[in-house]
DNA sequence: ATAGGGTTAG
């Protein structure tokens, strides 16, 4: 254009700025500005604002600041841009000062300040500003509702969410797709998935399959977001089965199931441990032609390793091959989870060689790996590396892992010192881990002391009593064990009910102890009785005394034989082909008797059985378990 | 000009 000698008008220049902003092309943006000055073009407020936008998109904060100072004329847009910029670049006070001194605040000014404060982690201050906005009399826009609903969910203030919901309806935003999706998300995050699903029911059907292939209107996108939020909502609230049901409905009804929803669902599969469904989704994902990116890849790696298929995890990891921390961390944690401690460590070293900077989660994976493999020196080395070389402050989880590491290696005095030196004596998880170590290394005296500490710190945690009772039982102090149990009853501490899950075809079957509600109930119990008889012949002896689980109240041989994981295992044996591994998920720690039972089953029936309990992963084969009887 | 979903750990 310049070569032809035509003179660009302001409209053209503004468009040029838009392009620079889109491409983050700072050089070109600066060039345009210089050209305007050289040719004496009148830089009006709109062009000035466009230039501000380009500089900020390119992270050239100083340029923007200087331009703002030099502008002859500024409007509310210029101010809003700068207020937002100061928040994003971390100068919250400066931003608030500017905001307060702004005489002509519009709705965007308010939206910017509320959202910015929230993004900076000042949620309470954001809420204050929202209240000021109401007092000031500024009408909410759709954007205000989105921001405010997110604020309500991040503060987990259902009451605020409800009020906003009322305002949304009154102001006529109830049919706006994105506002509705924010409402769905707010209710999910505040734990009211019932409310969320009612709103979802009103989501119009026009984005469904009928005659609408390939169309992605704003409403379509909003509908997908709502459904995606609903699926994630189920997942966040632990309602995995409902989440998967909603996802299936989505696959059946929708034109597109997008990559973000898929990520959430894979993560749901990982958490509930249903490998088959995860595999289906993986296949479905490839069928619709999406590339597996680092997000989906990390969740797939996590899913495969948590479902006991480390091969699957490696396949994904090699296939993606990106220097992404989370991707590597997922693989390291996966190895660690499966008891492949040394493998996890060598992967970590390779990661460092490739120049990828580990984060706090990576170190947690590595420390757990060391603990699992009993590598005390390495564990200490990495703990120091984390603090000194990477300036990461050890969190509760890292410290618990170290306590586990020392304890498992039998260094009980060091464990004790570590706890006090690092100020961890208020943490339940730390004392629990320590107590397990005392039990493992049969140090009764230390165990008693630790028990006292544990009960002081966590008098209402059922797990404390269970551990304690188990320790007494393994020392044959039956009276003591009984005393612990009655203390627990006296104090009104209730144990969480134990549950086990197994997936068959596309159905998830849930079992609780003594469950009689299953339709194959008779078959399961009679097979279980026969099986126990046969197991006794090869050396299994049910030991009720060793098994006050994290779960069941009652003791006695009959009741322990009906623990949920035994029911689930038997259900698996009855209903699946002989060659296939049986995969069980359990919501608590597996008890000693069930562990023993499953070891013998794997031997008697020559069957691979994989149990994932709350703590770790048990891979039973030929009569032994991958955890080497430590969990 | 302002927002609007996702990954690892626990």
UniProtKB/TrEMBL annotation:
GO-annotated biological processes: RNA modification
Keywords linked to the UniProt accession: Endonuclease, Hydrolase, Nuclease, Repeat
Name of the protein in its database record: Structure-specific endonuclease subunit SLX1
MF terms in GO: endonuclease activity; RNA binding; zinc ion binding
UniProt repeat feature PPR, residue ranges: 75-109, 223-257, 324-358
DYW domain residues: 539-631
Keyword NADP: no
Protein origin, superkingdom: Eukaryota
Provenance organism: Vigna unguiculata
Recorded family membership: Belongs to the PPR family. PCMP-H subfamily.
């Amino acid at each position: 254009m310049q070569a032809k000698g035509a003179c660009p008008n302001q409209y053209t220049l503004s468009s040029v700025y838009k392009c620079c902003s889109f491409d983050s092309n700072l050089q070109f943006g600066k060039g345009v500005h210089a050209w305007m000055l050289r040719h004496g073009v009148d830089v009006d407020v709109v062009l000035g604002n466009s230039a501000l936008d380009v500089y900020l998109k390119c992270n050239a904060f100083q340029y923007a600041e200087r331009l703002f100072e030099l502008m002859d004329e500024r409007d509310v847009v210029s101010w809003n841009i700068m207020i937002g910029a100061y928040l994003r670049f971390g100068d919250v006070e400066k931003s608030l000062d500017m905001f307060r001194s702004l005489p002509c605040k519009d709705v965007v000014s308010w939206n910017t300040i509320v959202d910015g404060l929230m993004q900076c982690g000042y949620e309470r201050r954001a809420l204050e500003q929202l209240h000021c906005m109401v007092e000031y009399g500024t009408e909410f826009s759709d954007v205000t509702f989105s921001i405010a609903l997110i604020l309500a969910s991040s503060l987990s203030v259902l009451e605020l969410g409800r009020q906003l919901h009322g305002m949304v309806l009154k102001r006529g935003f109830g049919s706006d797709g994105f506002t509705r999706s924010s409402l769905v998300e707010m209710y999910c995050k505040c734990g009211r998935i019932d409310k969320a699903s009612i709103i979802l029911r009103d989501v119009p059907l026009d984005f469904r399959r009928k005659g609408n292939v390939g169309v992605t209107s704003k409403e379509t996108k909003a509908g997908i977001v709502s459904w995606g939020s609903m699926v994630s909502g189920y997942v966040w609230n632990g309602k995995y089965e409902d989440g998967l049901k909603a996802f299936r409905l989505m696959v059946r009804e929708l034109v597109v199931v997008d990559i973000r929803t898929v990520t959430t669902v894979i993560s749901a599969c990982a958490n509930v441990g249903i490998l088959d469904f995860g595999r289906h989704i993986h296949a479905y994902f490839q069928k619709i032609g999406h590339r597996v990116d680092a997000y989906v890849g990390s969740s797939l790696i996590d899913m495969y390793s948590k479902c006991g298929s480390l091969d699957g995890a490696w396949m994904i990891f090699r296939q993606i091959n990106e220097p992404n921390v989370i991707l590597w961390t997922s693989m390291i944690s996966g190895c660690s989870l499966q008891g492949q401690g040394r493998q996890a460590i060598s992967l970590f070293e390779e990661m460092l060689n490739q120049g990828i900077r580990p984060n706090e989660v990576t170190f947690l994976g590595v420390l757990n790996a060391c603990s699992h493999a009993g590598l005390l020196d390495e564990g200490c080395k990495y703990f120091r590396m984390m603090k000194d070389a990477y300036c990461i402050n050890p969190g509760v989880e890292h410290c618990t892992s170290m306590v586990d590491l020392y304890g498992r290696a039998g260094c009980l005095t060091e464990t004790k010192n570590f706890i006090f030196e690092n100020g961890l004596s208020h943490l339940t998880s730390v004392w629990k881990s320590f107590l397990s170590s005392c039990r493992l290394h049969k140090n009764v005296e230390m165990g008693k002391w630790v028990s006292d500490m544990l009960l002081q710190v966590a008098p209402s945690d059922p797990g404390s009593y269970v551990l304690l009772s188990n320790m007494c039982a393994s020392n044959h102090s039956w009276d003591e064990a009984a005393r612990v149990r009655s203390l627990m009853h006296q104090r009104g501490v209730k144990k969480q009910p134990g549950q086990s899950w197994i997936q068959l075809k596309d159905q998830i079957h849930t079992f609780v102890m003594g469950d009689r509600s299953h339709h194959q109930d008779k078959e399961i119990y009679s097979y279980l009785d026969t099986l126990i008889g046969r197991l006794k012949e090869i050396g299994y002896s049910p030991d009720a005394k060793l098994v006050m689980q994290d779960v069941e109240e009652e003791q006695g041989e009959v009741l322990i034989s009906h623990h949920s994981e035994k029911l689930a295992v038997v259900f698996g044996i009855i209903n699946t082909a002989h060659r296939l591994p049986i995969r069980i998920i359990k919501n608590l720690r597996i008890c000693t008797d069930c562990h023993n039972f499953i070891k013998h089953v794997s031997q008697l029936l020559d069957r691979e059985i994989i149990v994932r309990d709350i703590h770790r992963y048990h891979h039973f084969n030929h009569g032994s378990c991958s955890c080497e009887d430590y969990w």
